[in-house]
Amino acid sequence: MDQLSQTILVVLIAIILGWFAIGVVWNIRRGNAVLRWIQGGLPRLGEKTTLRWLGSSAVELRIARAKSPFRRVDLLLVMEPRDVLWFWLLARLRGRRDMLIVRGQLMSAPRFEFDLLSPGSWSERETAGRGEMRQWESEPLDEANFRAPAATRSLSRQIAPGALAAARRVWPTIWRLSSRREFPQLELHVPLPYPRRADAAQFFDALRALAEHMGNQQ
Questions:
Q1: Is 58:83 a contact under the CB 8 Å cutoff?
Q2: Average pLDDT of the chain?
Q3: CA distances in angstroms from 82 to 12, 55, 59, listed in the order given
Q4: In this structure, are residues 150 and 136 in contact, taking their beta carbons and an 8 Å threshold?
Q5: Of 66, 147, 152, 175, whose CA is between 20 and 30 Å from 113?
Q6: Cα separation of 115 and 125, whole Å?
Q7: Quick check: helix, strand or coil at residue 82?
Q8: Between 131 and 183, whose confidence is greater?
């Protein structure tokens, strides 16, 4: 290998390692900031929380004994994979952004199953790839794509607008709202909150109100 090739290789390695270090620090700081914000409202959901980092791009919080109307709540802070440049670029091209995923088991299971998905979002593509939705029918609903099993679509369609309105009181931008009979009976995808732009207590109070709405489907 000549001198020029060695120099190029060293520069490339330095760029990759430097990008990795910056990406890891960026995600950890972002995650820790949101975790500090979450602590202000987490008692609204439950007193005992298990926390673990899943690499540098995700944090899982699990409340095994949550307050009513939940039985259990899992919160997943998912950040863009900024530590690996090509993964980060691919994720952005696919529409993936920093997000908060809520998965809950409710005291009362929803009667009907449906999804409300933001068109073109990463959440829509990820959900549509699951086999369970291949026989589901789809139609537009208030700037979202509504999907439900054909047998119960008309009944679910009556419930979905109220559920979406309740979800938007949690956070204005909804990428996914799902209702299921089995866990997770409630799944919500929203942009990862910015601590300075929202009150954590209000956020989790609105989340409980959403869960109560979903568990009281008529």
A1: no
A2: 89
A3: 17, 12, 15
A4: yes
A5: 66
A6: 12
A7: coil
A8: 183
Give the range of the structural domain holding residue 131, as residue numbers without chain letter. Answer: 3-215
Rounded to 5 degrees, what are φ and ψ at 144? -125, 165
Q: Following DSSP, what letter does each residue of 116-181 receive, concatenated?
A: EE-TT-HHHHHHHTSGGGTTEEEEEETTEEEEEEGGGHHHHHHHHHHHHHHHHHH-S--SEEEE-S
Dist. CA 23–CA 160, nearest whole Å: 38
Rounded to a whole number, what is the largest CA-CA distance in the chain?
A: 74
Can you tell me the distance from the alpha carbon of 167 to that of 169, in angstroms, rounded to the nearest whole number?
5
Q: Tens of pLDDT along 50-89?
A: 999 998 899 999 999 999 999 999 999 999 999 888 888 8
Q: ∠ CA(156), CA(138), CA(164), 5° rounding?
A: 50
Angle subtended by helix axes 200-215 and 153-170, to nearest 10: 170
With beta carbons less than 8 A apart as the criterion, state whether 106 and 211 touch: yes
- E strands, 26-125, where? 50-53, 58-63, 70-78, 99-106, 114-117
The whole-angstrom separation of Cα 173 and Cα 177 is: 11
**pLDDT (0 to 100) of residue 196:** 65
